[in-house]
């Protein structure tokens, strides 16, 4: 590992830069893991914390609670962005880490609706909002911290490792869930084992805290602090300049909204579509998602590095255009694979029995007693391995578009704003766009499908957002690759 400073950037060695990337990424992976186990377990959570008499309403309520965490992100961006520009990047995302981990850990111990009634969803909502506040401050800090250590001509490559953390956190959440499910068995996992992934967060946060606490401040922030040029009112300073406000709006409507829509659609709505609309068995659906996300994750770095060579705008716009053109055909293809192909087994559950079909014939019918006479009617289909692989390929293509839109975006955003208000100016548009538009995509898409009765209606929302963002971005975004970070 090099011991001399890297050219075209701050006075940082390659070894030190990789230490910064590892420390920032490790903590961010854990924060995304914390945030996304909620979404991955939405189907189970809906039966634990909401009234059982209407399963569809309970599931939509769970998705709304999931979305509340995203809605809270802009407020976290305001609070923690301000702190990050005033007291430092390092200390701020230490606070966000502890807040996120503590909230996730607490979810593991909330009593169910059957025990405490409406207090169960209220407590769940409060903790979810705290998660959103923490995440609102995390990304801006991590992206800014890594970028301010990176050389100008390789900023896309090095900051793209932060972009991988969301997908890695999502993958780890699926891996932990499948591991718990396999170890405990489906019945025990659905009964109480779903709490274990939340409880595990406590140990992960302690580990990450000790990794992060030994980091130094970024060279750019340390220089400003030494010179006495830190902003005393970064929130006001971000909005008092018309040019800076214009940049924030261009970033949001020309890049981030579409990026958030395709990212959350490919990694969350795809999962909902497969399990709730196509009725694919839960474990198989999670495996499909895990494989697709794993295979696509290296492309965050590939496209981030490519943006250093050909420009951020070209790579991001290509991802947005691909998503707007191909999302609908991809979801049609997923439907045809399941409903037009071979189904090995279909299981239909209702309030009194479980009926299993093979080739359209009843092979077993078992009488069961569900707790509290809960209405639980659903169908699960088991698919051949070849069909699952093809299903995974269609999800992979969606995630690939997301990697194109998302891989270069940290470098692009950091290069837009001056150092003394960078954390705040970056975090607010990023979290407004991802929180309000992107994070709510699964809820809006599911609601549209429920409202219209069309299985494909939910895809119209991300298609509209990616197409709109592509048009705005093509008109207003100027290339930033290779730009020297301003003080």
UniProtKB/TrEMBL annotation:
Gene3D superfamilies (UniProt xref): MFS general substrate transporter like domains
Protein transport as UniProt keyword: no
The Major facilitator superfamily (MFS) profile domain, residue ranges: 20-481
InterPro entries in alphabetical order: MFS_dom, MFS_sugar_transport-like, MFS_trans_sf, Sugar_transporter_CS
Alphabetized GO MF terms: transmembrane transporter activity
Stretch forming the signal peptide: none
Keywords: Cell membrane, Membrane, Transmembrane, Transmembrane helix, Transport
GO annotation, cellular component aspect: plasma membrane
Keyword Glycosyltransferase belongs to the record: no
Main location: membrane
Record's bilayer topology term: Multi-pass membrane protein
Transmembrane segments: 20-45, 57-79, 91-110, 116-137, 158-180, 192-211, 245-263, 283-303, 315-331, 388-414, 426-447, 459-477
PANTHER family found in the cross-reference section: MAJOR FACILITATOR SUPERFAMILY TRANSPORTER, SHIKIMATE TRANSPORTER
Protein name in the entry: MFS transporter
Protein's organism: Siphonobacter curvatus
